[in-house]
Design a protein that fits this description.
mainly alpha, 15 helices, 2 strands, 72% helix
Length: 346
């Protein structure tokens, strides 16, 4: 054989001796479809910068509010569908809007924070395996008996640890913001409301007599819808790069099993919650669409422009205070975005 032929054979031998490249992305139709759907969801929820959205919402409130105040017939003509105050969307969604927001965001935040927290203790699996090897010892059996007796207290402790999760603390504080704000709006409305006739002091009596019960009603709908949208956008920002992050965890899992014959703890938790996180993210995207639609309806058909502008700045002020100032502290956040997660050692 010539020297070139030997060199070529050696080259191909080196290539064939190398391990095949690990492909982490599935080409299954259902997986590809899910990736497309998740990409669309990311575009709808976190695809646009929050500050740009705030500018858009403000312009919509000013322009749409003025049109609704001075040209209501024109607005009704160009927007044929008007949400009824007693309709399903208003009664079962907007009226209890914050309830739906925390019901979907709570589990979502808890699961994503569990995955990020697992990176802080990469050697937990080793401790767990040692405990399994020592499971037959007398001390281990007595320990199990004690754990069984303390089952109720341990459940309470687990519940407390879940509720005191750093990331969930943001949601509890946001709930406090919501409660204080809506209570303040109600108090202010009651303080400024009166009948057009001074002879009546109650709303029912005023209405029965044919008069109007007038006051300054800060738009609670504008506040709760906008505040919920801002909170959802901030908390869902963790989904930026979430799927590639999962692929890196998968590679780390394969390498850990090859070199140490152990599981990578963070990957195990990711695999456990992956489907649930996707489902909650899809639900949050659907909720975002509903909130945007109802905000559009509120802007055009309900409350005065001034009432909506005050509610807008109130919601933006709380968002800025929370997410740009207060929650920057380490006491309120274990991880905020995927790119801030600790580097995965493969």
């Amino acid at each position: 054989m010539t020297e070139d032929t030997l060199r070529l054979i050696s080259y191909w031998r080196d290539i064939m001796s190398k391990e095949p490249r690990l492909i982490t992305t599935s080409t299954d139709f259902s997986h590809v479809t899910m990736m497309i759907v998740l990409t669309l969801c990311r575009r709808l929820t976190i695809g646009v910068n929050i500050r740009k959205r705030l500018i858009f919402y403000l312009v919509m409130i000013v322009v749409g509010g003025l049109l609704g105040d001075y040209l209501p017939n024109f607005v009704s003509t160009i927007v044929p569908f008007q949400s009824n105050k007693k309709g399903i969307l208003n009664q079962w969604f907007v009226k209890i809007g914050w309830f739906w927001t925390i019901v979907l965001l709570g589990p979502f935040i808890h699961m994503t924070s569990q995955i990020s927290a697992a990176s802080d203790a990469p050697h937990k699996s080793e401790v767990h395996q040692r405990s399994l090897r020592d499971d037959t010892s007398p001390s281990s059996r007595s320990s199990h008996l004690k754990n069984y007796r303390d089952c109720n207290s341990s459940l309470i402790i687990k519940l407390w640890l879940t509720l005191s999760n750093k990331d969930l603390l943001r949601l509890w504080i946001n709930t406090l913001f919501w409660y204080i704000s809506t209570s303040a709006f109600t108090w202010f409305e009651n303080a400024t409301t009166s009948c057009t006739s001074s002879d009546f002091t109650t709303e029912d009596a005023c209405a029965k007599s044919g008069h109007k019960w007038i006051g300054f009603d800060i738009s609670g709908h504008t506040f709760i819808l906008l505040f919920s949208l801002l909170v959802i956008m901030e908390e869902c920002s963790v989904m930026k790069g979430w799927e590639p992050f999962g692929e890196r965890l998968f590679i780390a899992q394969q390498n850990r099993q090859k070199t140490m014959r152990q599981d990578y703890p963070q990957h195990l938790i990711y695999a456990k919650y992956k489907i649930f996180i996707r489902c909650f993210f899809l639900a949050l995207t659907a909720l975002t669409l509903i909130w945007n639609f109802m905000l559009f309806q509120t802007i055009l058909f309900y409350h005065t422009t001034l009432q909506k502008i005050i509610a807008y700045f109130w919601a933006v002020g709380l968002w800025f205070f929370g997410y740009k100032l207060l929650y920057k502290s380490k006491y309120f956040s274990s991880v905020f975005k995927v790119e801030n997660l600790p580097h995965i050692k493969e």
